[in-house]
Design goal:
Elements: H1 3-11, H2 21-28, E1 31-36, E2 41-43, E3 51-57, E4 60-65, E5 71-77, E6 82-83, H3 86-90, E7 97-100, E8 104-110, H4 111-120, H5 122-148, H6 151-166, E9 174-176, H7 181-187, H8 192-204, E10 208-211, E11 214-217, H9 220-231
Antiparallel strand pairs: 1-8, 2-7, 3-6, 3-8, 4-5, 4-7, 9-11, 10-11
Helix pairs in contact: 1-2, 6-9, 7-8
Length: 233
C-alpha cells in the first residue's frame, strides 16, 4: 500500500483524526499491511503485547473464552476501526482473542516505535487524546445500550448506525448485515432466538423489510423518533 493511501486511511480513524499530515506521515512509516485468511488469529488472550491493528478490509472478531470453552464476543470490527490500542497505554498483555471473520486486510502498528514517536512529540499525544475521546464516547454509548435499553431499542440503534455508515451512494434506505445473525446477537447482548423474533416484529410493524442479509428501512423517521424518545437523544 502506498504511503499516501496509508495517510488517508489513518485520517479516517478517530484516534488519529485530529493529527496534522506531517504527524500522520510519521505514523504511516511505522505501519505494516498484512493480508489474512478467514480464521486467522491476530493475537490471543494473555500473549505479550506487540502493537495494535487497523482493519482495512473484511472483519475481525474480538472475543473471550471461558474455562469450559464458551465464547463471548466483545466486538466485531470493520474497516477503519482499531483494535488492541488500549493495552499499549496500560502496559498490559493482549486482553482477549482476535480472529478474522473473513479474508481480511489489516494494518499493524508496532508499539515500541509508536510510543517512541509519542515521547519525542508530546503535542501529538495531546491531539491524539482528543481523537481517543471520540472513541471512548462511542464505547460509553455501546455500554449504555447494553445496560439500559431492551433488545428492540439496541437493534434499532444498530440498524440506524449501520444505515448511516452504508448510506453514501445508495438511493434507497437499504443496508446490508455485515456479519452473521449469531454474531450480531452476541454483539448487542442477546440470543439468536430473541434477535430473530425482534426482527420479525419490526417487519410486522412495517419498519423494515428483510431479504437475506439485505434490509430495507421502510420508515427511518419513525425508527429515529422511537430511539430518540426512549434514549432522550
Amino acid at each position: 500500500m502506498e504511503i499516501e493511501h496509508i495517510i488517508a486511511t489513518l485520517h479516517l480513524i478517530p484516534m488519529f483524526s485530529e493529527l496534522r499530515e506531517d504527524e500522520l506521515r510519521d505514523i504511516a512509516a511505522l505501519c505494516h499491511v498484512r493480508e489474512c485468511e478467514k480464521r486467522t488469529l491476530l493475537f490471543q488472550e494473555g500473549s505479550p503485547y506487540r502493537g495494535f491493528y487497523v482493519v482495512l478490509e473484511g472483519s475481525v472478531k474480538v472475543f473471550k473464552l471461558s474455562p469450559d470453552g464458551r465464547e463471548t464476543v466483545l466486538h466485531v470490527l470493520f474497516p477503519h476501526q482499531t483494535l488492541a490500542e488500549i493495552p499499549m497505554f496500560a502496559g498490559e498483555d493482549y486482553p482477549a482473542h482476535a480472529e478474522c471473520l473473513a479474508r481480511s486486510c489489516v494494518m499493524f502498528i508496532e508499539s515500541d516505535g509508536f510510543l517512541s514517536l509519542l515521547r519525542r512529540n508530546p503535542e501529538l499525544s495531546l491531539r491524539m487524546l482528543a481523537g481517543l475521546s471520540k472513541r471512548l464516547r462511542h464505547l460509553a454509548g455501546q455500554l449504555e445500550d447494553l445496560t439500559a435499553h431492551d433488545v428492540r431499542t439496541r437493534l434499532i440503534h444498530y440498524l440506524l448506525d449501520e444505515y448511516e455508515l452504508q448510506k453514501p451512494g445508495r438511493v434507497l434506505p437499504r443496508m446490508t448485515l455485515r456479519t452473521s445473525k449469531s454474531l450480531l446477537a452476541a454483539q448487542i447482548g442477546t440470543t439468536l432466538e430473541t434477535l430473530s423474533r425482534t426482527f420479525r416484529k419490526l417487519e410486522a410493524e412495517g419498519l423494515i423489510l428483510m431479504k437475506g442479509k439485505s434490509i430495507l428501512l421502510q420508515d427511518v423517521e419513525r425508527m429515529e423518533k422511537e430511539y430518540g424518545r426512549i434514549t432522550g437523544q
